[in-house]
Amino acid sequence: MAETYKKLVASTFSTDFREAAEVVEEERPSPGPHELLVQNRYAAVNATDVNITAGRYDADATLPLDLGVEATGTVIAVGDKVRQAEVGDAVVTSTLGGGYREYHLVHESNAIPVPKPSPEALSIMVSGLTASIALEEVGNLGNDETVLVTAAAGGTGQYAVQLARLAGNHVIGTCSTDEKAAFLEEIGCDRPINYRTEDVAAVLDEEYSDGLDLVYEAVGGPLFDTCVQHLGRHGRLLSIGYVSEYEDGPEKITRERIYTDLIGRSASIHGFFLPHFATHFEVHMKKLMQRQRSGVLDVRIDDRVFEGIEAIPDAVEYLQSGASMGKVVVQFPEAQQ
Ligand SMILES: NC(=O)c1ccc[n+]([C@@H]2O[C@H](COP(=O)([O-])OP(=O)(O)OC[C@H]3O[C@@H](n4cnc5c(N)ncnc54)[C@H](OP(=O)(O)O)[C@@H]3O)[C@@H](O)[C@H]2O)c1
Fold first, then answer.
1. Structural domain contains residue 283
2. Counting atoms of ligand 1 from 1, which one is nearest the CA of 177?
3. What pLDDT digit, counting tens, does each position of 243-260 carry?
4. Pair 259, 321 in one domain
C-alpha cells in the first residue's frame, strides 16, 4: 500500500484560519523528471496566512487550497533529470501551498541549497529577503539617515532593523511590549518605541523634528498614517503590509488625497511585494546567509514550539495575537536517512 502524508488545505475561504483549514491525507507522490521530493522539517508562519485562506493573496485561488509558503527540509527522492540536487541535500523552498505539508514536490529550480534544514535559514527565505530587497532595491537604503521600522521585533521587522543599522543609520523600531523593546535594543535599534506606553507621533515630533528618511511599514492603520505624516524631505515609505487590518479587512477612510502629504516634502510611498523581485533572490539570499552564519545578523526564532500539521492553526493565531517575537515556525519530524 502507498504511503500517505498530511497537509493542510483551506476548504472554505475565510480570514479565520482555523475555520478555513482542514488536515487532509494523501498519497506520497514520486518526483517527475525535474522534481525533488522534500520531507519538510520546518515551515514558516506568516502574517499573510490569513490573506491566503481568505482567497485575497492570489486572485485565481480555488478550493481546496494548499496552505503555507516557505519550508525547509531534506531531499528524499529526485527525478531522473535532476542535476542540481541529490538525496540527502538540505534545501529551502518558497512556493504557494508548499509550506504546511509533511512532503513537498518541488521543481529543482525552486529549491535553494542550505547547509542544514534550520529555522534560521527558513526565516531568511521570505522575512529576510523582504527586508533586504525592499530596503536596498526599492528604498534606496543609505547611511546616516533616520529609518523607522514598524512591527520591528517581528519576523521581517527584525531583519529591517539590523540591515538598516548595519548600513550606518539611526534606527527607530515600534513594538507592543517592553520585552520586545529590550530585544530591539539587543539587535541594535537606537530608539525602540513601545506604542502601548508611548505615543509614537509625540516621540517623533519631540525627538525627530527633521522627519523620517526611510520607513519600513508593515502594520498599516493609524500607524501608517503617523509614519506618512512624519516623513521628512525626500522621505521614502516602503509599504510592506498592513497586518492590523488583515482580520477585519481594510478600513474605509475619507480624507484629503495622499498627494497633500507627499508633494511638499518630495516624499514617496512605494508598495512592495516580494514575488515581484525574484531576480534579486539569489544575491540577497547569499548575502543574508553569510551574515547570519558569521554572526553579524542575529536571527531570532520565537521560542514557542509548534509541532505537526495539527498545531498550525495555533501557530497562526499566536502570530495574529501580536505576542510573538522573531520568526514563528512549525516543526515536523526529522527525515530518516
Ligand atoms: N510585501 C511582502 O512581500 C511581505 C513579505 C513578508 C511579510 N510582509 C508583511 O510584513 C508584516 C509582518 O509579517 P510577519 O509575517 O513578519 O509577521 P510578524 O511581524 O512576525 O508578526 C506580526 C507583528 O505585527 C505586529 N502587529 C501590530 N498590530 C497588529 C495587529 N493588529 N494584529 C497582529 N499583529 C500586529 C505585532 O507586533 P507589535 O505589535 O509588537 O509590533 C506582531 O507581532 C505583515 O504586514 C506582512 O504581510 C510582506
1. no
2. 40
3. 999 999 999 999 999 999
4. no
